Amino acid sequence: QVQVVESGGGLVQPGGSLRLSCAASGSIFSRYTMAWYRQNPEKARELVALVTSDGSTNYADSVKGRFTISRDNAKIMVYLQMNSLKPEDTAVYYCNVVLAGRYYWGRGTQVTVSS
């Protein structure tokens, strides 16, 4: 079993920055991908960014150039640095770990971008 816990959400003004953190623990014994998704009431859950075990990254077009995903393999953590935030970035952000073909999710952290 794998446990995933997010932290770092909050309220920020447009143009501001936030850094999300995600810690994974449990039976993590092989290569795994870590990712951030987001969801608001008006849209389906969408991929924001992912980082593979070899460090390759992928971003949604809507966040390219503004968000940066990174991981710390020793601590089994993933981070999402979010800059130049926009109101449309408002959502619940979920951390995801893909291990041996199984998806593990955190409970999410709310990010609200508003003046």
Characterize the structure shown:
This protein has 115 residues and is mainly β. It is 0% helix and 57% strand. The chain has strands at residues 2-7, 10-12, 18-26, 32-39, 46-51, 57-59, 67-72, 77-82, 91-99, 102-105, 109-113. The strands form two sheets. Strands 2, 4, 5, 6, 9, 10 and 11 form a seven-stranded mixed sheet that branches. Strands 1-3-8-7 form a four-stranded antiparallel sheet, with no helix packed on it. A hairpin with a 2-residue loop joins strand 9 and strand 10. The protein is globular.
Structure at a glance:
By secondary structure, the chain is mainly beta. It has no helices and eleven strands.
Task: Label this structure with key terms.
single chain; 115 residues; mainly beta; seven-stranded mixed sheet; four-stranded antiparallel sheet; 11 strands; 0% helix; globular
